Amino acid sequence: MKKLDTKLMHPRDQITMIIDKIYRSGLTTTSGGNISIIDDNGDVWVTPSAIDKGTLRPTDMICVRKDGTIEGRHKPSSEYPFHIAIYKSRPEIKAVIHAHPPALVSFSIVRQIPNTNVLPQAKNVCGPIGYAPYAIPGSDELGEVIADEFKKGVNAVIMENHGTVVGGSDLNDAYQRFETMEFCARTLINGNTIGKPNYLTDAQIDEFEDQIPRLLPEMTEVKYCSEERAIREQIKNIVLRACDQGLMISSYGTVSVRWKDNDFLITPTNVARWDIQLEDIVQIKDGKREPGKIPSRSTWLHQEIYKRFPHVNSIILTQTPYLMAYSVTGEKIDVRTIPESWIFLQDIPNMPFGAHFAGEEVILNTLSENTPAVIINNDSVLVTGDKLLGTFDKLEVAEFSAKSLTMGASLGKLIPINDEQVEDLRKKFLG
């Protein structure tokens, strides 16, 4: 499948693609939310009013011409006036998404703004977040209060007792901001269920950004043998599967697979995970990168793991909704509460933020055949394994366990199996 060049897609096709992703991800309802794009002519393309978000087609989109003329077979969204107000207040914004994703609605109801310093990429993707006081949906007043917030230079706004609205330089940019902001809000809510979230300083977030391996030397010659191409297909399929299952979001997630010896293939930086293609994946050979591509920030760590652990042939580093609750609080996830989880993962230790940066040894000194996964505080979960599918299975088991534990925390004290029962599991399943 050829990579989508959304800049060449008609606005109505872009909107159809993104509203479908939002709806199928459970971030809006059949009747809720709206999306628009303003084109180079100043015409605004917008979703229709009262049409099922699960069945929208390009022909359903409405065009509001620059002169105010409305074209299309439906009525435009009743809230399109505030889209127009945003475009007038911020000409550099070319796309707007408004919806009622559950976690962000929770923040709007308690009248708070999520602190994006809880995750490094959240602050950089979302930027500062504004807050719009309540106004009647579809009213001119709502357009005014939202536009006033955007005039302050923010690209995301919490709407009091309503939802959220984000803008972007294009629709992909807006969607990534929307998705990342909701993930951040969900992480904070889950974190508060099991403990108290911790936050990063601006200096720590800047240090995270500095991990992009821009200076990794480039190869002079690249070979794409059949085995190498097969690995690209594996990585692409797992990344897309992770996105479909909510185990990876567009702004974060890394997968790598050993190719031969200590050479491997790894996902890139700054490519939307849901649209990753074979040509995006980066070959790392003899410490050099495939020309013209920037691999994941965590490339150094993946390289060192392959060098030091011959049994590891695949690595996934990602953010998942419930494991991140343990990441941002620093609470230890006790997989001894579920026998199958302990068999797959044994204990999952927490690592300090920055443990995955180049030159740091703590993760490398912790991983082993009996410790295949670690949680990196305020960042991610890292899972290692042999075959990529098996590594992905471990990730799924860890996330399902984290979900059960987080939900169970609201019911009462979590009671793990005892040491004797753990030893019985060790003898039967681990020899």
Automatic annotation (TrEMBL):
SMART domains: Aldolase_II. One of its GO terms (biological process) is pentose catabolic process. Pfam families: Aldolase_II. SUPFAM superfamilies: AraD/HMP-PK domain-like. Coiled coil: none annotated. Keywords: Lyase, Metal-binding. It comes from Draconibacterium sediminis. One of its GO terms (molecular function) is metal ion binding. Residues 13-189, 233-406 form the Class II aldolase/adducin N-terminal domain. Gene3D superfamilies: Class II aldolase/adducin N-terminal domain. InterPro entries: Aldolase_class_II_sugar_metab (IPR050197), Aldolase_II/adducin_N (IPR001303), Aldolase_II/adducin_N_sf (IPR036409). The keyword Metal-binding applies. GO terms for cellular component: cytosol. This is Aldolase.
